[in-house]
Amino acid sequence: MKYNNYQCDLADEQAMQQFGQKLIQAIIKMPVTPNGIILHLNGDLGAGKTTLSRAMIQALGYQGNVKSPTYTLVEEYAIGEKRIYHFDLYRLADPEELEFMGIRDYFSPQSICLLEWAEKGKGFLPEQSLTINIDFAPQGRHIYLQANTLLGEQIICQFVEDQAK
């Protein structure tokens, strides 16, 4: 079965963490691609983008503190053969700044790039595999996954398949 989107409601922070753990398990089953796996995390301030990112990184076995890269723009996590790059472009003044920081070097076959506020880097970022929209809901958060590539569809299919188990 083919899926190009998926949506659900999450009641609280614990549900967001569980969602992130399950999503990253689907992601790591994907084949290697030249630019790695690129996820755009969209949502208002406080919606849960960093909470979701933290849950994904910790689910891969990272034991240290996972902090928001609001001031550093990017935090790197080496986990086994994978490199997880957590970006927060909220404070980016001009997308051209990404060229100066060597943005292209982050997109490699072994990378998983989690980009918060990715729209601020428009024109300087490769196509994302998956867009994750997080919206406030009357009870918790509403999550909407949108595949932007075949790889994104494969991630959603794997996620849905894993949920059914």
TrEMBL record:
Q: Does the keyword Repeat apply?
A: no
InterPro entries from the UniProt entry: P-loop_NTPase (IPR027417), T6A_TsaE (IPR003442)
NCBIfam families (UniProt xref)? T6A_YjeE
The family database entries (SUPFAM superfamilies) matched by this protein are listed as:
P-loop containing nucleoside triphosphate hydrolases (SSF52540)
Q: Name one GO cellular component term.
A: cytoplasm
This protein is called what?
Answer: tRNA threonylcarbamoyladenosine biosynthesis protein TsaE
Q: Name one GO biological process term.
A: tRNA threonylcarbamoyladenosine modification
Gene Ontology terms for molecular function? ATP binding; metal ion binding
Which terms are listed as keywords in the entry?
ATP-binding, Cytoplasm, Magnesium, Metal-binding, Nucleotide-binding, tRNA processing
> What family is this?
Belongs to the TsaE family.
Chief subcellular location: cytoplasm
Question: Pfam families given for it?
Answer: TsaE (PF02367)
